[in-house]
TrEMBL record:
This protein's UniProt keywords: Acyltransferase, Ligase, Transferase
InterPro entries per the UniProt record, alphabetical: aa-tRNA-synth_II/BPL/LPL, BPL_LPL_catalytic, LipM, Octanoyltrans_LipM/LipL
BPL/LPL catalytic domain location: 33-248
Top-level taxonomic group: Bacteria
Protein name: Octanoyltransferase LipM
Pathway(s) per entry: Protein modification; protein lipoylation via endogenous pathway; protein N(6)-(lipoyl)lysine from octanoyl-[acyl-carrier-protein]
Chain's role: Catalyzes the transfer of endogenously produced octanoic acid from octanoyl-acyl-carrier-protein onto the lipoyl domain of GcvH, an intermediate carrier during protein lipoylation.
Subunit structure: Monomer.
Note: In the reaction, the free carboxyl group of octanoic acid is attached via an amide linkage to the epsilon-amino group of a specific lysine residue of lipoyl domains of lipoate-dependent enzymes. The reaction proceeds via an octanoyl-thioester enzyme intermediate.
Record: active site: 150
PROSITE patterns: BPL_LPL_CATALYTIC
Site (Lowers pKa of active site Cys): 165
Entries under PANTHER family matching the protein: OCTANOYL-[GCVH]:PROTEIN N-OCTANOYLTRANSFERASE (PTHR43679:SF2), OCTANOYLTRANSFERASE LIPM-RELATED (PTHR43679)
Length: 278
């Protein structure tokens, strides 16, 4: 069977509003049949705190800490909880929900897309596996998260190594298209991360932070060596090709496409109306 060719975009380090606008633009273009299914890798400049579509920004986020740390801030079009995008590889996958490889349910689509991430970790020599919440307590935790921090718990078919979460993802379906994007942690600073969220008091904050350290881990800590961003890109590009049985063809945006994304970024994802809507 001949492998399908998908588009591959490495957009480098972009502003938080440009990153979210480009993901939305790719979804729109794919829904209109203008582009094939696409996988994108990107980084953040500046380092950025993103929150899920349904989170209450002013209630959950310590904006003084965001300002003090000179971080960007943006609301994602997908669900999930807060993520500090810094020393990581961020990916997005854009594919029609009627694609022959895509199951109908969100959970099973996660599984299929995450095969690419699973294979990427294997390329780095790490034995990753899918998280499958088994106990009733774990399942309740997905519906009622203990904190606003994304890596505080694993959802269905997210990636864990040695029992701890190494990648977090979120998904939305709009205009008949699946957008899944997520973070593959290379390094992590738990103290910095937890300073960005509001807690009832310091005791609760410290308890949550200690619990978090048992649930999440950075790739470099597991590999016991420094994996560069370029090595990670190579590994996960190959991982997606193997996991989804596809070929990835590099592509760069043209000037017309860049202008469209920049306009969307300015009008939507840089606006207080969007970022503080909840």
């Amino acid at each position: 069977m001949e492998k399908e060719t998908w588009r591959y975009i490495d957009s480098g380090y972009c502003s938080p509003e440009f990153n979210m606008a480009l993901d939305e633009a790719l979804l729109d273009w794919h829904s209109q049949g203008l582009i094939p299914p696409t996988i994108r890798f990107y980084g953040w400049n500046p380092a950025t705190l993103s929150i899920g579509y349904f989170q209450k920004a002013k209630k959950e986020i310590n904006f003084q800490a965001v300002k003090d740390q000179k971080l960007g801030f943006v609301r994602r079009p997908t669900g999930g909880r807060g993520v500090l995008h810094d020393q990581e590889l961020t990916y997005s996958v854009i594919v029609h929900e009627e694609h022959e490889q895509m199951p109908k349910t969100v959970t099973e689509a996660y599984r299929v897309i995450s095969e690419g991430i699973l294979e990427g970790f294997r390329q780095l020599g790490l034995k990753a596996e899918f998280s499958i919440p088994r106990s009733e307590e774990e399942k309740r935790g997905l519906k009622n998260p203990r904190s606003s921090v994304c890596f505080d718990a694993s959802s269905w078919y997210e990636l864990i190594v040695e029992g701890r979460k190494v990648a977090g993802s979120a998904q939305t379906r709009q205009k008949g298209v699946i957008l899944q994007h997520g973070s593959i942690l290379l390094n992590m600073d738990e103290d910095q991360l937890f300073d960005l969220f509001n807690f009832p008091n310091e005791r609760v904050k410290e308890r949550m932070k200690q619990g978090f350290k048992n649930k999440a881990v950075a790739t470099n800590d597991l590999a016991k060596r420094e994996i560069s961003i370029n090595e990670a890109k190579t590994a996960f590009k190959k991982g997606f090709e193997l996991g989804l049985n596809i070929n990835l063809e590099p592509y760069e945006l043209n000037e017309k496409e860049k202008f469209y994304v920049q306009k969307l970024a300015k009008e939507k994802y840089a606006s207080d109306e969007w970022n503080f809507k909840r």
